[in-house]
Amino acid sequence: MTSQLLRHLQLRVRESGGLVNFSWSPSSSNLHDPLAYEATAFFPSGSSFSYPKVNMSNVDSVAASLEAHSREPSPKTTSNRTHIYVCTHAARDCRCGTTGGEVATALREEVKYRGETQRIFISETAHVGGHKYAANVLVYPHGDWLGLVTPDLVPNLLDAIMDRSRTTPLLRGHWRGRMGLDKDQQLELYDRTITQP
């Protein structure tokens, strides 16, 4: 059922340029309905929209709502939380499972230490591409994708997330790109910030 839901939602959002993936977090388990999932949509504008429950009975209406939000010039933000997704998919490549797992653990510990568990949400996700860049980290709603992240970089990463402007790449030396920008726009953004670390 999970794979059917994933495929159905992917097909519905693909036309508007969207991507769908599932993530796992200890705090997101749904014991009452194991076939329903919380969904968060992120838009290139930096906004986000959350759906508390998505399953096969409402997937079409959720997809229609996503499509409508993607056409809005400034979609509404329903949360001020930062979502950090770490690829820990060891079945595709052990580098993702090992390094990704270590980074996810370090992120959870550092977020808890800083008292930011209500503001920064850490979860693990399946394959996002680029095993050689493990650990791969996706930061939303910023939309930045990072590679070669190690546990010792976690404090710097969280500092950058909390202090930075969206106009610059997040951790430039580990930056793989940003959602909503084409290749030329990403290269221009990268080159414009060449003096940054």
Describe the SSE topology.
Layout: H1 2-14, E1 23-24, E2 37-42, E3 48-54, H2 59-71, E4 82-87, H3 94-113, E5 120-125, E6 137-140, E7 144-146, H4 154-163, E8 175-178, H5 183-192
Parallel strand pairs: 4-5
Antiparallel strand pairs: 1-5, 2-3, 4-6, 6-7, 7-8
Ends distance: 44 Å
At CATH level 2, the architecture of the largest domain is 3-Layer(aba) Sandwich
The secondary-structure class comes to: alpha+beta
**β content, as a range?**
15-25%
Largest sheet: 6 strands, mixed
Total domain count: 2
CATH superfamily of the largest domain: Glutaredoxin
Here the CATH topology of the largest domain equals Glutaredoxin
Please tell me what the overall shape is.
globular
| Cα-based radius of gyration, to the nearest Å | 17 Å
User: SSE order, as H and E?
Assistant: HEEEHEHEEEHEH
Task: Please give the number of β-strands.
Answer: 8
Model regions low in confidence, pLDDT < 50 over at least 5 residues: none
Going across the major beta sheet, what is the strand order? 1-5-4-6-7-8
Name of the level-1 CATH class of the largest domain: Alpha Beta
List the total number of helices: 5
**Percent range of helical residues:** 25-40%
Mean pLDDT: 78
